[in-house]
Structures
1.
Amino acid sequence: MLSDLSFEEIKFYVKHMGLPEFRGEQIFDAIYSGKSLQEVSNLPKAIKDILCKDYPNYAIEKVYESKDGTKKYIIKYSDRNIVECVLMKYKYGYTLCVSTQVGCRMGCKFCASTLHGLARNLSAGEILGQVLLVNRDIGGSRKNRMITNIVLMGSGEPLDNFDNVTKFIDLVSASKGLNISQRNISLSTCGLVNQIYKLMEKNYNITLTISLHATTDEKRKEIMPIANKFTIDEIVKACREYYQKTKRRIYFEYTLIKSVNDSLDDVKRLAKLLKGLNCHVNVIPLNVVKERTLKGSSRLEAYKFADMLKSNGISATVRRTMGEDIAGACGQLRNQIIESTTK
Ligand code: SAH
């Protein structure tokens, strides 16, 4: 698919297809404007006929808008698979949370994305498609980019789809492409330690975010199967090396689950684990998923937890929850749609 290709690769493709060179720029512009092939007006039908099997045919299937302005998009791909992405408006611009896989195979107990397992990986161009389509939907184009920040925190485990995800980062941050600064891109992982080392080699300026959610391996194993493969100590060691190499502050996500990971002992252990690492902890009250039995701590408890972390020397804030009225947590909406269409 053409959105998998960089500008240079598109130029090569155009040459290979026997088309004049200037068509390369037009095709690239059309793709980056998020237009479907039918909507492109400056390409003759004969060229469209040549392009049609390679031109992306993903589309926005549905948009849900929350009272707080957050928008959730359902994107449909050519094989009818759907994913979600979420647009959040902040003072500085728009952040888009993208999905990296259709479903997920990590099996975290609190997460809706993994309930149906992994359907398939998304290609780099399919992940990019989410950005291009939403950018267009809010009035942007290739030259007038409206989306300023990207978080790889939608459905899927980005480091379980390493090659496509890193290619996506290359494409979306390319100056000829959307030119989104790598400093404005966050990649969130449940902690695939071997892949974190591989990511380090890329020397990106992106922010690495770790979904930690527990302070002992025993507890982590109860809620995150990946903990059977990598210990918390191994994750934190990789983070320390990641910081040494990139000088990028590490972020930790800590979803508070009632009576599971929200004790004073957890605060103390977490502070000890992260001591001396340039990091920040985002405390997130659990977004309750109806298929799951785990209960969230209250917002007040989240503030208390963050305050205690701070008094133990760790930078921490409570994450704002957005879009709760539109099934905000990743994967929730896709599950609702799958259920309603399979009934
Ligand atoms: N697989 C990656 C990225 C996708 S999940 C990862 O694990 O980081 C993005 C974030 O949402 C993770 O921190 C994940 O733990 C969190 N999350 C998933 N379900 C949640 C829920 N129901 N409530 C709160 N946070 C949730």
Note: Residues 232-246 form the longest helix (15 residues).
2.
Amino acid sequence: MQIANNRVVSINYTLKNDAGAIIDTSEGGEPLTYLHGAQNIIPGLERALDGKVADDALQVTIEAADAYGEYNKELTQVVPSEMFEGVDKVEPGMEFQAETEHGVQVIRVAAVDGDNVTIDGNHPLAGERLHFDVSVVEVREASEDELAHGHVHGDDCCH
Ligand code: ZN
């Protein structure tokens, strides 16, 4: 069965950045299972997998725009450290959930300079060209429930 919209796809993958460092991998764990055509995964990877079948293997390079988006400097902001009430020590790399005009977003602390804290709302992989090693494990039709919900139902499902 070919990978096409409204089919459930399981893949094993290893994701590297431009420098060749492994960022994420399914090796040693469960394959990633997703609903094709439902924007469950980044657009560039979904496009590359279109039409593939079980046991196909591919290497694909995805530009930032088709991955987690270009880095947007406007999503960074310098705020006073008093904003982090109840946090003993604010350090780069910490993540907080913040109410913004776009809803709840994860904000990362990018830098701390005295009382000035630079926060960054970009996805950690924004602006990165990504390199995927992918092998297709399984392709099946989605159930009606899965199509209605726009995601895969399995052992680790939310309901
Ligand atoms: Zn559901």
Note: Residues 2 and 53 are 5 Å apart (CA to CA).
